[in-house]
Design goal:
The chain is built from 10 helices and 9 strands. The protein is α/β, with parallel strands linked by helices. Helix 1 packs across helix 5, helix 2 packs across helix 9 and helix 3 crosses helix 4.
Length: about 325
């Protein structure tokens, strides 16, 4: 059985991305199976998480696996000074795959280099969030019917937002036009703008969010200003309300436009938006289950033919 890691979205070809979308679609049809009966999935979360951790654990459970791990590093031997290396090597004695969230950029890559079992990156610092990106891609495909030639507006915390960094790299295959909407303090880092130029990705920058700016959007991807990423709370207070999406901004929105958000939200999408046909962030979160079922199976070498012909489906 071929085993692989899922650490960065940057290495995935367009064919692989479309394959993973197709695989996630099989799990949306039938999420309850016993493909992983007898397997153990470890979730090691060094940072707080609700959706990511619960969807990974739900995915494992719906596939018939058992789940071990921790949701608070303070409740583990990390609090005693155990290194990441030793934790990974220890947990790999017990688990068939490890899903890990860490506050240090590059931690998942390091773990993948020392671990004898597959590593899934569930977010590393402000760097990448590839499993979130996969569910975002699945959601975009689900709502637009394609990934090609889309106008995608990234709004809010583009400096620290690992979800938008991952999405930017994943969409390089599909001829997107990006619009970056953020206050100057939270603008897209230069390294990602250089990446766009190197890959021939079109982009525009804006400092204000309003209805006219987003009128041509296919996808409006909102992000939370992440208080936990700021060392200066005065700076956070200055920018926290800089990009708020209101229902009255959607009057001229295209009929197919959908609003996404990796969640949790604070106040960057007013609740009245929830009642519009453009709101899609709750369905997006649900898609996390199917995308993460696909990821777990893929790293364990379970292919789409095996999934389609799976005799363990629970109806």
């Amino acid at each position: 059985m071929l085993r692989r890691n899922f650490v960065t979205i940057a290495d995935l070809s367009s064919e692989k991305i479309l394959y993973m979308i197709e695989l996630a679609g099989e799990f949306e049809k039938h999420p309850n199976r016993e493909l992983l009966k007898g397997k153990v999935v470890a979730t090691l979360f060094y940072e707080p998480s609700t959706r990511t951790r619960l969807s990974f654990e739900t995915a494992a459970n719906r596939l018939g696996a058992r789940v071990i791990g921790f949701s608070d590093a303070k409740a583990s031997s990390v609090s005693k000074g155990e290194t990441l290396k030793d934790t990974i090597l220890m947990v790999s004695n017990y688990a068939d795959v490890i899903a890990m969230r860490h506050y240090i950029e590059g931690a998942a890559q390091y773990a993948s280099e020392i671990s004898p079992v597959p590593i899934i990156n569930a977010g590393d610092g402000a760097h990448q969030h590839p499993s979130q990106c996969m569910l975002d891609l699945y959601t975009i495909y689900q709502t637009q019917g394609t990934l090609e030639n889309l106008n995608i507006y990234l709004v809010g915390d583009l400096k620290y937002g690992r979800t938008v960094h991952s999405l930017l790299m994943a969409m390089r295959h599909f001829n997107p036009t990006f619009h970056f909407i953020a206050p100057t303090e939270l603008s897209m880092p230069n390294e990602y703008k250089i990446y766009c130029k190197e890959k021939g990705i079109r982009f525009e920058e804006h400092t204000q969010l309003d209805g006219d700016v987003i009128s041509d959007a296919d996808i409006v991807y909102m992000t939370r200003v992440q208080k936990e990423r700021f060392s200066d709370l005065m700076e956070y207070e200055h920018v926290k309300n800089s990009c708020i999406l209101r229902a009255d901004m959607l009057r001229n929105a295209k009929p197919n436009m959908k609003i996404l958000h990796p969640l949790p939200r604070v106040n960057e999408i007013e609740y009245a938006v929830d009642e519009t046909p453009h709101a899609y962030y709750i369905q997006q979160a649900r898609n996390g289950l199917y995308a993460r079922e696909a990821i777990i199976c893929d790293v364990l070498g379970i292919g789409i033919d095996e999934v389609r012909n799976d005799p363990t489906i629970i109806y």
